[in-house]
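Working notes for the structural subgroup meeting. M.R. asked for a predicted model of this chain before we commit to crystallization trials. I am recording the input and output together here so anyone reviewing the notebook later can reproduce the run.

Input as submitted:
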Amino acid sequence: MKKKFTLEIANPCSENFDQMIPNAGGSFCNSCAKNVIDLSRKTNSEVAKFISENKEKNICARLKATQLEEEFQYNETSKINNLKYAAVAASILFISNNVEGQEKAVIDVTVNCAKPAYAIGKVVTTQNKEEKISFFIKGKLLEAKTKKPFDKKTYWNLVININNSESAAKVNAKTGEFSIQVKVLKYSKTLTVTIMGNDHYLSKTIDFDIESVKNNVLLQNVIISSDDLGRIYIAGGLGINYIDKKKTREI
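Returned structure, recorded in token form:
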């Protein structure tokens, strides 16, 4: 059965997520002594999967403002159906074991293997489409309307990550300049750029041409609108509004 729901934040938290301590379960908040799960970087299907697996828990999560406007869904299988499936599977296994025990017989199988053929000539190799190349991307992060760096008072600690590189690069608050090392599939035509900081987040795809990489460096400015750099909130007590039952649950 499909379960549809939306998320809500009754009381947004004012704690600074960037100052929390990352760990395997999220980031630990000293203020409330619990983990904050970062859902802001997950897709809708990943969020739905997380909620379906943790809906009975008390969750503190970090969300993009736009996620509060999204509708999510997951498939919920009843425990009764799971027991029925398990019983049927056990019955089939029992029957097949009995049949196998009754009908075992010695079968003489002769396999004729063809002799290997050898040829002399040039060795042909195929290019690996999964081959990755490493290089640096250098440029400026600019605001789309002004074509200038973002206001350093409001966006003073922005970082940029491209293609999930091992570490993000800090954006110079004054000049907008950044430099980051990335690994890209050799035949890739796009790059995934992620901007984070000051409780803001944006992920977008930009065009990429490997021919533009010169001396192991790609000069590439990233131009985005401040309107698209969405706010991120931290929720204490994530609210789940089930659409099919018209009921709100708080976990």
